[in-house]
Known about the structure:
The complex is a heterodimer. By secondary structure, chain A is of the alpha/beta class. Chain A is 30% helix and 23% strand. Chain A has a 5-stranded mixed β-sheet, with helices on one face. A 4-stranded mixed β-sheet of chain A has the order 2-1-10-11. The radius of gyration of chain A is 21 Å and the shape is globular. Chain B is α/β, with parallel strands linked by helices. A 6-stranded mixed β-sheet of chain B has the order 3-2-1-10-11-12. A 6-stranded mixed β-sheet of chain B has the order 4-5-6-9-7-8, with helices on one face. The radius of gyration of chain B is 19 Å and the shape is globular. Chain A: Belongs to the metallophosphoesterase superfamily. YfcE family. Chain A: It holds the Pfam family Metallophos_2.
Amino acid sequence: xxxxxxxxxxxxxxxxxxxxxxxxxxxxxxxxxxxxxxxxxxxxxxxxxxxxxxxxxxxxxxxxxxxxxxxxxxxxxxxxxxxxxxxxxxxxxxxxxxxxxxxxxxxxxxxxxxxxxxxxxxxxxxxxxxxxxxxxxxxxxxxxxxxxxxxxxxxxxxxxxxxxxxxxxxxxxxxxxxxxxxxxxxxxxxxxxxxxxxxxxxxxxxxxxxxxxxxxxxxxxxxxxxxxxxxxxxxxxxxxxxxxxxxxxxxxxxxxxxxxxxxxxxxxxxxxxxxxxx
Amino acid sequence: xxxxxxxxxxxxxxxxxxxxxxxxxxxxxxxxxxxxxxxxxxxxxxxxxxxxxxxxxxxxxxxxxxxxxxxxxxxxxxxxxxxxxxxxxxxxxxxxxxxxxxxxxxxxxxxxxxxxxxxxxxxxxxxxxxxxxxxxxxxxxxxxxxxxxxxxxxxxxxxxxxxxxxxxxxxxxxxxxxxxxxxxxxxxxxxxxxxxxxxxxxxxxxxxxxxxxxxxxxxxxxxxxxxxxxxxxxxxxxxxx
Lengths: 278, 241
């Protein structure tokens, strides 16, 4: 079975349309979406309606959550006060523009989806706001996959696609445990164990509507369940049309500027490993 | 230099006194005592116990306290927790426990309990009730090794002392290695190799939950870990590794 996984569309209808055309051309049998349908971009309703109409299984992203529950992230979400002002302005604009039925759709999205040995999340299995960066400590990254009890973990949120495959991890542990029972002397035993973890993968689907890999093209991934082969797809689209719409709608112009370059620049988080305490 | 590390007194002043007596009687220079939460409980004399924590007598070490599961539930009840509703408390003990716990701790002590740390980082050791993830995280020798490594790596600690399980154990990760490959749009698959230095997750025991109190002695310079068992009314007995 051939599946397509996309993420972080961010109200960019032009990019979504072109990615869906590319997915059609790849003869994909099933599409999954990892959330962040709205935010930054000028067409949140059109994007949500397209996802709904195609009945694409979708998890809730952090932007979707913020629109449903309100902005309550701590100030660490933004690298500067000016970036915070822009982020909040985009939130207010999206909040006002979004139709009630689309808001309801975002509200009912699950945080996790499962399909056989595949698991789909927005950020990480522990938190929609956690970034699983490709350089993340291998043991910590492996834990994120194993926490799902799946073999392949699909995530987004970073806007940069990658595939990380973990070969067999090996551990030797010595456990010195003590059992204490009422009115009895404690019993100690020491055992040594060897553990081997099985093959696991993290697949980051990149971003359809707000790429940050250094080019303006939309990105998504194709996964073949029989061969476990992953293909990172990069799709050209008319990003200037989206940039013009961002400015026309009165959203912060820097969103158009960075969309045209496919990079984060001033908006980049200081510490991507930080997770907001809400 | 030695540390005494304990958890789960749950308002049991007699058990705490038994541990203190054991510490005083030992010939070791125990200069720090870390209490990893669940100082209070729904029964017991919580007010007297908290007062005793700060009444340091000759021969007793300095005391540092962090919050445990019961402290977190109490703070939630008083509107000072990280969540608004005492969902976990009700799920585990029923709705009546909200009043029992509310009544078990005088209101004037709540701010003091709130001031206790979530966890303490000393040398290369993280000391916390549950883990680096939260006070309700239960780590045991049966927890998957990758999960245990993650809890250590979150704080880049070599030792994690925890008390949530109530068990006494020393889980030593003597060897850990993992190979991975990362492929991006612009780079072909590149190999990464990661090895883990020796790490320990230590369950420090439980003081107040039964007739026998258990706690842990740790010697930071040598890395030696020793578990202590104390009968709450009879003379204490030690057992080392």
